[in-house]
């Protein structure tokens, strides 16, 4: 029986052609250290076939032209994230032996494993994960940084920006307080020195004796008989009268 092969033959699907890369996406690739027109052209073409001329920033940041090598994986794990093999294994849900195999080229590094570490390094959770910030979190409603020790303490970005000015004012008032303390200490020391000087040299007794002498002198002056002296005009008048005689 003759069959029509034209009816049973399936036409292969047409391969989607990538459209030209937009200038902004090209610039983004260059800013990430990639050359979309040369060394990374094949990877960029694959992305263009799926996304068109405008490539998403998140896929540009993944550096599609670079492979997930053992050296890049180890650098990301050890120096960027500062994780041990055991810690990385817990996060990636694999065994430490698998991590060691990836880093020693005993087996190929899955791109998904490397990409998971890279995305972790750029996440705000990782950047806030420090022993000194243990338990702190950002309130999604208010945007305040909440302290685990004082639940009602939530520091806003405006308050954080104002901290340098607040510290400067604190230092100014602290310096002013130190200056006043020094002046007060000097005044107290001078007062103490004078009191000791008066007590040791008998100055107080001398002042009391002088006070008594002055009081007696003033008393005598107040009770003395006051003699009236002729004025200058009276004396001249008397001399003229004598001359006329």
* Biggest sheet details: 3 strands, antiparallel
Strand order of the largest sheet: 1-2-3
Class computed from helices, strands and strand pairing = mainly alpha
What is the number of helical segments per DSSP (H or I, 4+ residues)?
13
The count of β-strands is 3
Query: How many structural domains can be distinguished in the coordinates?
Result: 3
Radius of gyration from CA coordinates: 49 Å
Task: List the helices and strands in order.
Answer: HHHHHHHHHEEEHHHH
The N- to C-terminal Cα distance equals 193 Å
Q: Which band does the percent of strand residues land in? A: under 5%
Helix percentage range: 55-70%
Label the overall shape. Answer: elongated
Instruction: Name the average pLDDT.
Output: 82
| Residue windows where pLDDT falls under 50 for at least 5 positions | 12-16
GO molecular function: DNA binding
InterPro entries: Lambda_DNA-bd_dom_sf
Keywords: Coiled coil
Coiled coil: 163-197
């Amino acid at each position: 029986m003759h069959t029509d092969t034209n009816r049973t033959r399936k036409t292969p699907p047409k391969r989607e052609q990538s459209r030209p890369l937009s200038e902004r996406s090209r610039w983004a690739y260059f800013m990430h250290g990639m050359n979309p027109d040369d060394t990374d052209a094949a990877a960029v073409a694959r992305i263009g076939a799926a996304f068109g001329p405008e490539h998403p920033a998140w896929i540009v940041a993944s550096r599609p032209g670079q492979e997930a090598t053992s050296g890049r994986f180890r650098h990301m794990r050890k120096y960027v994230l500062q994780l041990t093999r055991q810690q990385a294994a817990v996060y990636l849900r694999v065994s430490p032996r698998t991590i060691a195999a990836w880093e020693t080229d005993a087996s190929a590094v899955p791109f998904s494993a490397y990409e998971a570490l890279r995305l972790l390094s750029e996440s705000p959770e990782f950047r806030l994960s420090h022993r000194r910030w243990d338990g702190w979190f950002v309130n999604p409603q208010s945007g305040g940084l909440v302290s685990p020790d004082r639940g009602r303490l939530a520091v806003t970005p405006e308050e954080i920006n104002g901290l340098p000015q607040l510290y400067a004012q604190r230092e100014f008032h602290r310096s002013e307080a130190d200056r006043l303390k020094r002046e007060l200490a000097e005044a107290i020391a001078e007062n103490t020195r004078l009191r000791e000087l008066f007590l040791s040299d008998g100055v107080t007794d001398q002042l009391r004796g002088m006070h008594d002498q002055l009081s007696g002198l003033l008393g005598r002056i107040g009770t003395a008989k006051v003699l009236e002296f002729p004025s200058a005009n009276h004396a001249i008048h008397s001399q003229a009268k004598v001359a006329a005689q």
